[in-house]
């Protein structure tokens, strides 16, 4: 019987900060930070129903919050840095966990817990099955969204210094609304599984009753965010706003 050399064992030892448990916790916490951001962002978007003045005033308020203790847009940039850090941590942890799972199964993936109702495994819901590609779709959508409505780099329907006008000009075009609908549907599926998985990772899935509550909460949050964001583009497209 032989034993592994101590140096060999130490060489393959993973630091606690990069352990699977730590990475899953990082994925959960960073995901919940992004969910909180989405809820606040959705609230701001719905101000479009109050008209141009209210919507543009809200956009200015975000940039003047914290003055004079913070510089112009200081609070907004703090929020952006926290959000960007959360996104990077989320992507790094998710990709690292996925690569470890692929290595552990020689690239074939793994069978979930089986049941007579689902030979592929009871964890293979559509939302969980599409988590990776849903995340890629959402990432590409966020880039396009920033270029259109934040930096005014891409401006279908016409450029404008007014956030309200940029929103209305873009969403008057059917293919812009269609692209948003596809991306937000992918976001909804991603949120449905991600929200449940985050709380399960953090230890909230402790009983059948708690699991039911988590499922209901995950479905409610995903529907509220998806529908809340879709209301604005479809309202503009159908002429209810602007």
UniProtKB/TrEMBL annotation:
Transmembrane residue ranges: 21-43, 77-98, 129-147, 173-191, 212-241
SUPFAM superfamilies: Fumarate reductase respiratory complex transmembrane subunits (SSF81343)
Keyword tags: Membrane, Transmembrane, Transmembrane helix
InterPro entries named in the record: Cytochrome_b-558, SQR/QFR_C/D
Official protein name in the record: Succinate dehydrogenase / fumarate reductase cytochrome b subunit
Organism, as annotated: Streptomyces achromogenes
